[in-house]
Every structure is written in C-alpha cells, then in structure tokens.
Design a protein that fits this description.
globular, alpha+beta, five-stranded antiparallel sheet, 439 residues, eight-stranded antiparallel sheet, single chain
C-alpha cells in the first residue's frame, strides 16, 4: 500500500487516485550519472522532466507527459557521520526504510510526519511535517542537499556551499532540479511517551496554547458533527519502553482506525444521512491509552483507508478562530463529513517556501474518503483558510496560484528568481508549477 500505483501501458496514478498521467518515457536511473544523462537527453529531445516518488501527493506536482524519473534504484544510506551526527541518504529511499535503518544504528530523526510510505525527496520537496513545539518539518532537519540541475550538472548545497540554493531547495517543489541525495541531522535513538486522550473540542480550543506549550509534540483530531476530539501528546521519556501490545495495537490501529473506519466510510458514502451518527459513535469509540516506544513507532501509523486531503498552515494565533469558523460552516452547510479534521503545529523556519516560513504555524487538514464528492467541503474550508492568509501544503489539494503565493510568502520572489537562474528554459516545468510559481 502507498507505493506507486501504476496502471498498464505506462499510465501512472497517485495514491489518492485523483491524478493520472501517461509520460512519454519512464527512466529508472541506477546512479547520479545516469540520472544526469537522462536529464541532458530529455533537454535534447525537447521533453520536460519530473521525478516521481511514491505518489502520495494529491496535487499533480509530479505529473508530466515528458520524461518521468523513477527513483527506486536510488535508495539506501550513503554515509553516517557520528561526529557531525548526520546521515546522507539517496533521494529515492522510502522514509520507512530510513527509519528502520537508523533505529538499527541507534539513531533517529528528531521529528517526522504521521506516515512513512513516501520517499525522502518527495516528502521534503513538498514540505511534509509532523507536529512539534521546537522541532520543525522534515525539510528543516536537512543539513545538505545534492541535486541535478537543468544543464545536467550536480550541485551540492548547505549553509556553507551555495547557501542561497540551500535556502530554497529544501522545499523545492521539484522546480530547481532533481534531488539525488539528502543529508539529515540525526540524534541518538530516544524514547517517546505517547498519551492519547479524548477531550471536548471547546476545552481543547480554550487550552490550546497551554497544551502546545507543555508538550513537545501536541496534535488532535476533531470529528465534525460532534464536539469530540482525540488528543495526542508525545514527550521524551527516560523509559522503560512500553510498546502497545500486539493485540491492542491491532485493535486500535488496524481494526478501529483502518477496518471499522473503512466500513464506516463506505457506509457514509452510500448513505450520507447517517454520517453524523457514525461520527458520534466513532468519536466515542476511542479510549485513552498511553505507550512508550522509539520515535517512528510513535509518530507514524498505517493509513490504509484511501482519502483525498487539503491542508493549510495558518498563523498559530489564528488557529482557534479558524476551527470555530470551520465548525460553524459544517453545521450550517448540510455537508456530511465522515473524516476527522487533523490539527498540528510547527515553529517558524528559514526555508523560502516552507509552509512555516518565518511564522509559527498551525496546520488544519481536512479529508474526504476517496470517491466521495469533496469539492463543496474543500471549497468552503479553503475560503476560511485563505481569509487567515493560510498556506496550502504543496502536495495536497488546493486552488491557489502564484499571485496568491506572492502575497503570503515573504520570500516568494527569492525562490522564483533562483528558479530563473537554475532552470531558465523550464525543463522541470509542469502544469502545477506553471500555476503555483507562474511563468
């Protein structure tokens, strides 16, 4: 699940099933040299080039009718530097493989998102993040990057080398070149104690600043049509490890979160009128639980129910208003929303097109079950998010364009100027980049 879903005759589909393309050519390079040669060849043939990871973006950010670069042979750890506490990994490595390999070496990333199916370059290039008080997105943990640029040359960047490229390319949208290797900061493996607890929405909103300030990683899920949330607090622990038992883990993560949840989605899609009832039942089915384990086992969980998602970053101080408006909109609209709304936070970072660029942010993600009409809900939610100068996740559904981004990203012009320098002929262009970055 979650790996690239490919159809016959060279058709490619993303995980959410809402993007389908037929590239003119697919290339699976086994080395950086082969990748660079494929980029030069594409330019000669007058074809555009895009790298595609595991297909977990809901936008057409990786779509091309030109040359599609598949990274599955560019995987594995190149180097572990225990003095600098960094690990350099090939760009096509799935996060799952990176997390497992690091844990075996007694190392861990500081923070991560809630799934690990994506490739490291796909996840970072779109600004994928978890939740954190001090620790930011995956891209903010990058110490150096290697990329093949439009002329087929290999460029490395870090705070010291090509710092202006480093400031932009960590969340590069695939617009500046094709990432071939990433160096992440790592730390010695540690334990996280997780506490999951239901809480009324009004209480979460009233105590939000406190909950965020008191916990290293705070997030919650609100079930529309109810006043119920499930909160999750992750904090470092001296141990001992107390993993979720296999039976309890299966019951909560597979049966309730995937099995029963999937059945509830099918029912809600077939009979929208029962959705509020389902929401009330499912939001009270989860009970409080605590467990302690290594980070990737606490941060990530399997997501087998396929959905389409929109997520916006709003300024952190706008979160409570945003959610109150979202709740009022759902109550007023007659919409039937069968998927919880996910809320997370991130500190400001220094990456040009990071959704948390230069501002402390809160993330609000709305989802709809795959195959359910989502336009009305997403359109109404997006109106609320954009009224708060929200910034959409680059890999999730949104309708914004370059004109809007120039207003909400102070360093937008810096990014587009760098793109003019690195890719003047727009070799890495596609319809999505044309819309979000302009010509």
């Amino acid at each position: 699940m979650g790996s690239t879903a490919s159809g016959k005759s060279g058709t490619w589909r993303n995980w959410g099933g809402n993007v389908t393309v037929r590239p003119a050519r697919e290339v699976t390079p086994a080395s950086v040299d082969e990748l660079a040669a494929a980029v030069r060849q594409a330019a000669e043939d007058g074809l555009k080039v895009k790298a595609v990871g595991s297909g977990h973006s809901f936008t057409s950010i990786a779509a091309t009718d030109g040359v599609s670069i598949r990274p599955q042979l560019l995987t594995g750890i190149r180097d572990i530097d225990r003095q600098a506490m960094t690990v350099t990994v090939e760009s096509g490595t799935p996060l799952k493989r990176l997390n497992l390999a690091l844990a075996r070496e007694g190392l861990s990333l500081t923070n991560m998102g809630d799934i690990m199916e994506q490739t490291v370059s796909g996840a970072t290039s779109t600004g994928t993040h978890g939740t954190g008080r001090e620790s930011a997105s995956l891209a903010a943990q990058i110490k150096a990057l290697e990329l093949v640029t439009a002329d087929g040359s290999v460029l490395t960047c870090s705070e010291k080398d090509n710092p202006e490229v480093f400031a932009a390319a960590r969340v590069g949208l695939g617009a500046l070149g094709i990432v071939t290797a990433i160096t992440f900061a790592v730390e010695p493996l540690f334990l996280l104690a997780a506490r999951e607890e239901p809480m009324p929405l009004d209480r979460v909103l009233a105590e939000f600043d406190q909950l965020r300030a008191e916990n290293e990683h705070f997030e919650f899920y609100w079930f529309p049509h109810t006043d119920n949330t499930n909160t999750k607090r992750n904090n470092r622990s001296a141990g001992p490890a107390q993993p979720v038992s296999q039976l309890a883990g299966w019951f909560e993560d597979e049966f309730l979160s995937n099995g029963v949840f999937h059945a509830a989605q099918l029912l809600g899609r077939a009979a929208p009128a029962v959705v509020p009832t389902i929401a009330r039942i499912s939001s009270t089915a989860l009970s409080a639980r605590s467990y302690t384990d290594i980070p990737y086992k606490v941060f990530t969980s399997p997501r087998r129910v396929r959905f389409v998602e929109m997520e916006y970053a709003v300024p952190r101080e706008a979160l409570v208003d945003t959610l109150r408006e979202l709740r009022a909109m759902v109550d007023r609209s007659g919409l039937r929303v069968n998927f919880p709304v996910e809320v997370r936070t991130a500190p400001a970072d220094d990456i040009a097109l990071s959704t948390a660029s230069a501002r402390d942010s809160a993330y609000v993600a709305v989802h709809m079950f795959r195959g359910t009409p989502y336009q009305a809900y997403f359109t109404a939610a997006e109106r609320i998010f954009t009224a708060h100068e929200g910034r959409p996740h680059w890999g999730k559904v949104h309708t914004r364009d370059a004109e809007y981004f120039a207003e909400v990203y102070p360093r937008f012009g810096e990014f587009t100027a760098l793109r003019d320098r690195l890719d003047p002929d727009r070799l890495f262009q596609n319809d999505y980049l044309r819309r979000v970055l302009g010509q």
